[in-house]
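Hi V.,

You were right to ask for the full record rather than a summary. Here it is.
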Amino acid sequence: MTRADKSDIWQKKVGLMSNFNALTTTTEVLSGISLKGRTVLITGASTGLGLASAIALAQVGANLILTARSEAKFLAAKKAVLTGHSDAVVDFCELHLDDIVSCKQAAEDLKCRYNHIDHIIANAGVMACAEQRTAQGFEWQFGVNHLGHFVFINNIIELFTADHCRVAILSSGGHRYGDIDLADPNFESQPYNKWLSYGRAKTANALYALELNKRMPIGHANAVHPGAIITELSRHLQPEDFAEMGSSMKDSGIVMKSLEAGAATQVWAITAPELEGRGGLYLEDCQIGIESPGPTTGYASYIKNHDNAKSLWHLSEQLVGQNFIFSRD
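Predicted structure:
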């Protein structure tokens, strides 16, 4: 197969709108871009894709707010950022996404300290962990990946004050493991399955981005699939999980990414000029993804179900005990 043939196949798989691809790095995405004077908040920034994003964004002048579960984790991340850019402004926000009280407290703390935030990367998450519950009793993956971010972001969205403001919410190609179950989001009436739970949580992330984009008073929100990268996200996986994933990736032709390539799409999501004024999208490999039967690229149709997105929003409000009254209209 020639390079031209491969390019033609790629363009049919995605909504091509940039010269980037699956191997594009954060350095390439940010070439020629300045974020001087802008503030970027990144959740789960102490390691992995969050830290890689922070390091890259600091290089182009962004002021950073990094969330972590402890100050010790934050200080290690800050040191890594400052190693590459000693003049970077790096601030700390303690956040425990498995506790709704912590999410609300963190949001209130930020509103006391900041009068605006320009961009948010909702990067933190957990994957395929054993069954457990959050502080409020929610199923862990749904609670951490979706509900925690839902509360935290909705409580600080008022800090968005300009049209250029953007939210990038980390979903995953793993959304294909399962559609959202609005009747039983916490696995209370069915056997727990860690991969089904992960799929539903990642679907919830995409649906949240879809509905948030409709409701947020200013700016835009998009869902992001970072690709296949080995990070601390995989810390709950067993040896047999890695073996199965490796076999599946080999069969489907999925390529493992470096951290810099894995972080590229979420960085592109908040900085790309070609995404100005565009929201409610599913982004992958620094392109706009399109609906596809899968499994390697594109998205399943159910993550663009607007009725489910609206229903999930209302269900989430009920679960966390807080209504969010804001609208783009």
